[in-house]
């Protein structure tokens, strides 16, 4: 049994090869003369054809819709017209009496026609792109949003990704340092968006006033920067695409980790494993292309770059400075002073001039207080009543022997024991807790409990051990003979003196 296309081809073959006439074909196949003429004119059925274009109720309003869509490009995306709103305006303002469905179809077609088209970009070896993204992770049992620093190399398609608590200067700089170490070199040119971490001010079409810390990064690693035009992320579309890939591939399902260090170790392993993939259109695996690309890299300077942020702060009457929404203690002698904070992703160092006066681990939460009890010992000696009530000492866990020493001092010295105990604690300003603990334990064993006695024990324990003098390699010293001293000669000094008066 013939299908329509088989019948169509059979009629054409027989008629055009003069096997049968047209009239015979119409009789045999029971078709109209006009149908036969169409079959002979087309090698395949042409399908349904309109004699004139169909007209829709929305056609007269297409210029209005186009004008609305063009005006939407100049406003914030959250205040642009929805299809429903366009329909309402056509109905209320322009007298449209059709339905919503054909308006939706017209809007969809116009948007598709107006979509921007881009050039495929060439990516020579040695160029990189940087971007930030965000993802959720289960961090120590709590669902937490982390910032993802991503650097990609379009030529080899290599990706490097690390998670940080927040997008900020410290994480931006630290991300670069880790990426350069992972790639084994520094790209000659890196593309960025206009993040405030790097760009202080946009002063022209391509001109940028970059931040001081970004200049320091560039000056150290000597690469060239490139900033995308505003709202033109397609200029670094490679990193945008790979960021989405990494989020779906490396962070699904949502990781459960105890710390960011554990998460970053997992991400680093994923980046390393991803280098074994071969992409469509590439001649080799990513790892081989990266090895080729490394020949174009700049070398990493031998002097390590410190990924840090500097900030001038002022310590208050509680001997606290405020940095990044948290408060950190400094020694009380530096209260009411201007100090400098050097912050990295892991630590906070506080300086007075060139002198380091305090060190704390970095906290990424907010409105937290961090006290070092040793910072307040000088003040505590002047105000001993605060020892049991001051906030810096509330959670200070000292070894058990310190509690025994305090009770013994308070018992023996009748009201002055607390002051004497504070003098012992002040030894922590110059010695470690483990060294002082050993000295206190020894003092308790021999029954010496004063601060001076513990200080002497501590100093004695830390004195270097004097080894016996070795004569090996010194043959000239082996010939020297030292006679034994006769100590009985000194006995006369205890019984008489030159003046004839006996010594009692």
TrEMBL record:
Segments passing through the bilayer: none
Any single GO BP term: DNA integration
Pfam families reported for this sequence: Mu-transpos_C_2
Cross-referenced InterPro entries: Integrase_cat-core (IPR001584), IstA-like_C (IPR054353)
Domain Integrase catalytic: from-to ranges: 121-267
PROSITE patterns for this protein: INTEGRASE
NCBIfam families referenced in this protein's UniProt entry, alphabetically: transpos_IS21
Name under which the protein is recorded: Integrase core domain protein
